[in-house]
Amino acid sequence: MKSEAERMILHLLLNVQTSLEDIESDNGITQDKTKECIRIINRKLSEFKETKISINSSGEIMISPSTKEALYLFLKENIFQSDDYLLPELREQLITIKLLLSKDGFSLLELASFVQVSKNTMLNDLKNVKKNVLKESLTLEYSRLTGYQIVGEESRCRQTLVSSLKKILTVKGNLILFKKKLVDKNEIFLMKKRLLTIEKRLGVSFTDEQLEHLPFLLLVLIKRMQTATKSKIEEPSNLVYSSEFTIIKEQFWHIPTITEQDKGYLALQILSANMLHTSYDFLQDYEIGDAIHDFLKEVEKSLAINPIGMEDLKNKLIHHLKLAIFRTKYSLSIKNNLTEEFIKEYPSIFAIVKKSIRSLEHITNSQFSDDEIIYIAMHFQAWVYQSNEGTNTSYKALVVCRNGVSVSKMLLASLRDYFPFVHFIGAYSERTFSEVEEDVDFIFSTVELITKKKVFLTNPILNKTNCISLEREVHQYIDTNIQLRSSKLTNHLSKYIPKKNLPIVKQIITEFMNDSYKLTKSKIEEIISPIFPFSKENILFNYENINWEEAVELSFQPLLNRKSVTNSYVKNTINSFRKDGSHMVIGPEVYLPHAPTYDGALRNDFCMLICKEPIKINKKDRANIIIALSPSRNNSHVPTLLHLNKLFLDNHIYQSILYANDEAEVINLIKP
């Protein structure tokens, strides 16, 4: 129940309006459990003399602004984290860390006492630990003389240690690490000071998350180095003599018990950190230009992307890909807390990048982890959905995100798309936003901030529900803040109005604005859903036994009738499909014949041909659905392709489309 209480608080902080039904839908917590959680939270609120959370007769949850501030502190200080009971997954990670930080083994009783469980429970935990470390080519051994020990290659031991630690930090396990005496608070403080020194000397900026987690990571690695048998671990030759590498190693001069190679290993951990920006390039020796080109080509084919403008994306990706290649090549793990959420929200982008990343893996000689792939996919997600900021931006805002450059860029691009009337001056860390906060009217942030400015809390990954809630909150704030709106409009008009008349003009505008603008539902849908508006004219059924060329011609006939494409475009599409049809797949037995926009695509248009008799593509492949595409020059068709791909990967929806009886049924199935 404690973890459910924390999830409940997070939901309440991120949603302006919510209900018992919303919580059950979004978090899978039953309404009875929600009420029980709220009772637990209210008891804690009473202890702090804060206003309790209430539930009205309609099931809507009512919460005051001051109570929200108290809930944020509860979450930040881990108020609802149990000191005694630890979840099995957390116990297993703690046991793994304890075993890897000691040269001596531990008895069953010692380990059971460490996490405060019975011997039988500990035996079950150790079975899971054994399975987990075996995946990393390590073994959990037991002898009556030494007890339980984890043994194996030193590089594997360090990777497992780092991985286990990151999993604990992901669930805000800082206090547990202190309580179990795996790290010392004073040592964490001093290590953070050393990292700040590195920041200053190298001219880099760690993300807030990295600055919080790196001290823990470095200290447990140092403990491992001080207790484990010395083992030679490869240092990258192109970094050993770099000034950056030397500067970082110098920060560990005070630890005489570790070798120079160990200090180099610690330097690698810092160099591989996910940074917001950097003023140096330490991977100039890697020739990744051609590999990146091939990678982008693969993505371009899969999404039918117009290559114009991709040079900008390539330039932005180069730095990130160097870091990703570096981490993958030297088996330095990175934890992306948003991996599961991103895959759930954007499965198509993830699948396409995962498939295309193979062109980079010959450099690393090993596979990229899903966590790395998601960070790369976030760059594409931000680029695909990027929009030009409105020219008439009435308000200024900034974004605060503590998760690093990939997440920051994606969130910033999403917000610019949802709020075209806002000029976003950029994304900042929790430590640096105060330098520019006076220049903006409000702030979008993934964490609670101490500031006088209005802060809109948001998820790092925005889904439809988040967008509607955020849209409502922003417009409600603007609508009710008449002074803000009238001041902005007065400023816009100031060069046309005599200075002495400005006060009276502002007063008139303020009175006029009392009849505030309300965002309509259709406007919300237009902003949050850039999906092509399919109608009956975009759906065709074929009941005849025809070949693939006839099917392509049939699917493009409505586009020709609507003057969306030229005859030459259809001919070029058929020729391209004949040569390279294998790249024109958007789902299982769903094909997307298309050609470049310059071959005669006049405007964005689609036609879905549902074949009741399967079409033979070649000797082994067949098509049940043909999607005729006329791509747009600004890639506005890409969100629709991703949406369709997601639908076709859902077998239930796919089969329902195949067996639909009329156009209305299909439209109902594919609408967002």
Identify the notable features of this structure and list them briefly:
672 residues; alpha/beta; four-stranded parallel β-sheet; 54% helix
Word description of this protein:
The protein is an alpha/beta fold and 672 residues long. It is 54% helix and 11% strand. The chain has 30 helices and 15 strands. Strand 12 and strand 13 (590-591) form a beta hairpin. 35% of the residues are buried.
Question: Can you give me a brief rundown of this structure?
Answer:
The chain has about 675 residues and is an alpha/beta fold. It is built from 30 helices and 15 strands.
Topology of helices and strands:
Blueprint: H1 2-14, H2 20-27, H3 31-47, E1 54-55, E2 61-62, H4 65-76, H5 88-100, H6 108-115, H7 119-134, E3 139-143, E4 147-151, H8 154-170, H9 174-179, H10 185-202, E5 204-206, H11 208-227, H12 237-240, H13 243-250, H14 260-271, E6 275-278, H15 289-303, H16 310-329, H17 339-345, H18 347-356, H19 358-364, H20 370-384, E7 395-400, H21 405-418, E8 422-428, E9 442-445, E10 454-457, H22 464-480, H23 482-493, H24 502-512, H25 521-528, E11 539-542, H26 548-561, H27 567-580, E12 585-587, E13 590-591, E14 605-616, E15 622-630, H28 638-648, H29 651-658, H30 663-670
Relative strand content: 5-15%
Q: Strand order, biggest sheet?
A: 11-14-15-13-12
- Head-to-tail CA distance between termini: 35 Å
Number of helices: 30
Task: Characterize the largest beta sheet: strand count, sense, and whether it forms a barrel.
Answer: 5 strands, mixed
- Contiguous low-pLDDT stretches (5 residues minimum) are 275-286, 516-529
User: Helical content, roughly?
Assistant: 40-55%
Structural class: alpha/beta
Rg from Cα:
28 Å
Shape: globular
Total beta-strand segments: 15
Average pLDDT taken over every residue: 81
